[in-house]
Amino acid sequence: MSEGFLNKIRDQAIQLIAQGKNEYLAGTTLEAKQGGYDKMKLGCQELVKYARQETNQQLCQIASQKLNEFTTEMQNMKAYLENYKASMQGQSQLQPLQQQQQFSQNPQPSQQKPSNGNNGMNKSTNPQDVQDQGKSKLVEGQQALRNNLSTAIVTEKPNVSWDDVAGLEKAKDSLKEAIITPMRFPELFQGARKPWMGILLYGPPGTGKTFLAKACATECEGTFFSVSSADLISKFVGESERLIKELFNMARESKPTIIFIDEVDSMTGNRESGGGNEASSRVKTQFLVEMQGVGNNNESVLVLGATNLPWSLDPAIRRRFEKRIYIPLPDVQGRLQLLKNKMKSTPNNLTPAEFEDIAKMLEGYSGSDMNTLVRDACFEPLRKTERATHFKQTQTPQGMKYMACSPSDPEGQQMRMYDIKGGQLYLPHIEYDDFLSVLPKCRPSVSQGDLKKYEDWTSEFGQEG
Ligand SMILES: Nc1ncnc2c1ncn2[C@@H]1O[C@H](COP(=O)(O)OP(=O)(O)OP(=O)(O)O)[C@@H](O)[C@H]1O
Ligand SMILES: [Mg+2]
């Protein structure tokens, strides 16, 4: 096939995709949107034809990259169309987007209780009402954006309680004050006692910022949207801004709402210093506008951000996060609690004094460093058993099993671990020594230099958590 002909196929395919997408976004009826979707699909099929025949590797790669992008978009569109059709037919297994956003501890949609203060779109589960709501809300492209967002927003309760978060008492108190109290007792927050609108959790990696946000999600009574900046940054010009705008619109409709944005620095980095291109600066501006709530009532919408690079935040964004809470490395009490929590469900022979001893030795370790260390220590009994040359039969709660023993043990039989059948091996409990042997190889991941930076930033802009 001639090069010219091939290029023509490609150009036609791209044109078809673009037309289809526009028709889908602009379509105000189901038929119009379906038509746009079908056109896009046809265009993608043509693009595949082109890519199969293109001999230039680089062009072929570009085409398949583009195909990837289009098909991801089309998946969202398809989900939306199916969702919408199902809601029109009164089927409940594919819930309309509005219901998916409702945040409930109860997994059965039919038993969901409307949560306090939720208004507007979440109110009705009657199929006819849902259909009417759907039609009236189907403003140009808006539903498509919401559909995109619905895949990014996590609304399930993560099942992490305040008690699961070790230490960080001050941070927990601040969060309770800022999040839980205004949601439960909104009447107390009047006049100058306004609830906080932006809270930033910052600190070294692995100290529990995301974990703490999960606890907020579990414990709060309102709606909790969790999005990552990666989900809000779209490759299409102007779409990121629209996504951010729509996110805040959705939050306002189902308030009280917490919008949690993890790794917020990647979206709202400094506009002046290397922050980059025009697109990212527009994203930040949109974010500023939404957080400030010009022309919007932002009451009962709280933005909770987390970052380990607080100094790279744009100063204007920094100001929007009125409360900036430092999440430091755990102190000795925090480490002890974390250690005990982790070992709760693992058989061990550690005494309280040994627990304290280990907690003291782990100065400078973050929560996630400790996770790694505990996991490594839990493997030690297995490693010891792998090295053993003698085993003896022992009575265990689960019946007679083989356990490693010393070669001098009179009951010991010479064999290796892999000679024992599955289900017949008994691992010894974890000992203090197991921790000692893994300690030298599990080093802390946060350096003193890093800590100094966080402390300096805290004294300038933050508050101790
Ligand atoms: N204070 C803590 N209490 C209980 N578990 C913790 C604590 N800190 C950290 N962890 C454990 O470490 C893991 C990692 O923590 P998390 O993801 O919250 O860190 P982070 O501060 O968000 O890090 P990053 O800045 O890299 O995103 C958690 O899943 C949790 O198991
Ligand atoms: Mg995190």
TrEMBL record:
Residues 120-131 have a biased composition (Polar residues). Belongs to the AAA ATPase family. GO terms for cellular component: cytoplasm; endosome; endosome membrane. It comes from Paramecium tetraurelia. It is found in: Endosome membrane. The keyword Membrane applies. PANTHER family: AAA DOMAIN-CONTAINING, VACUOLAR PROTEIN SORTING-ASSOCIATED PROTEIN 4A. This is AAA+ ATPase domain-containing protein. Residues 90-119 have a biased composition (Low complexity). Its main location: membrane. It holds the Pfam family AAA_lid_3. One of its GO terms (biological process) is vacuole organization.
